[in-house]
Amino acid sequence: MAEPPISSAAISAAFPAPPPFYKSFTTSNLARLSSLQDSNPSLTLLDLPPELRNLLPPPPPPSNQQYRLFGETHTTPAPPPTETTTKEPPNPNRLVQTTRQLLLAFLSLTNSLALDPDTWAPKWDEMKALLSEAHGIVNQYRPHQARETLVQMMEEQVERCRVETQGCKDVCERVRKVVADVEHGEGLARSEMKPEEEHRPNIKSEEANLGVGAAEKRVWDIIKQEIGGFD
């Protein structure tokens, strides 16, 4: 059955169109497939019409870990261990022992290849088993690694907060010093006024303005000392 041609609009679309066989999943096709399977339980894929072949799920993987491809029998390799199901703590001595056994197995493999190349298969299988065991032991350290990484991150965060807190304390201390110097300057300006001049409004106003100016100058001088000179 020929596939329908793909339009230019589908090619230039932002998202690709769904595969064309999704149209086979209709209520009528599902009912036809169920009827055919009830009438013939040993129905195969090639016995179905083309519009119903996409409704059959793929066969499950072989239970004996063997399959045939192009007339040859192949063995499905076991997946590597990704996580451990045991609750026992990891044993570092066992990891060192497995590593040493792996080195000895490698030397034995090279010796077998040099003296009798036909006997390499058992040594190779032994190396794969040792690697799988070492991989499982290393995976047992994953929770410990996660805890240590979290502890390090929290320690860095605490140290950063301490530095920021100390910086805030230093700034507050400098602000208190500036305020104390300003208050001291204003007190000096008031003390320099003569007692008989306090009852004269014009002179009092002029002296007050001079005191304010002196205080402002004092503030700017203190700011220059704290943060440096500027134009």
Concise overview:
The protein has helices spanning 8-11, 27-39, 92-115, 120-139, 142-191, 201-227; strands at residues 66-69, 72-75. The protein is mainly α and 231 residues long.
What does this structure look like?
This protein is mainly alpha-helical and 231 residues long. 60% of the residues lie in helices and 3% in strands. Strands 1-2 form a two-stranded antiparallel sheet. A hairpin with a 2-residue loop joins strand 1 and strand 2. Helix 3 packs antiparallel against helix 4 and helix 5 runs antiparallel to helix 6. The chain is flat and about 105 Å long. The two termini are 85 Å apart.
Keywords, separated by commas or semicolons:
231 residues, mainly alpha, 60% helix, flat
Q: What is the topological layout?
A:
Blueprint: H1 8-11, H2 27-39, E1 66-69, E2 72-75, H3 92-115, H4 120-139, H5 142-191, H6 201-227
Antiparallel strand pairs: 1-2
Helix pairs in contact: 3-4, 5-6
**Amount of helix:** 55-70%
Tell me the major beta sheet. Answer: 2 strands, antiparallel
- What is the gyration radius calculated from CA atoms? 43 Å
Number of helices: 6
Name the overall outline: flat
* pLDDT averaged over residues: 75
- Based on secondary structure, the structural category is mainly alpha
Strand order in the largest sheet: 1-2
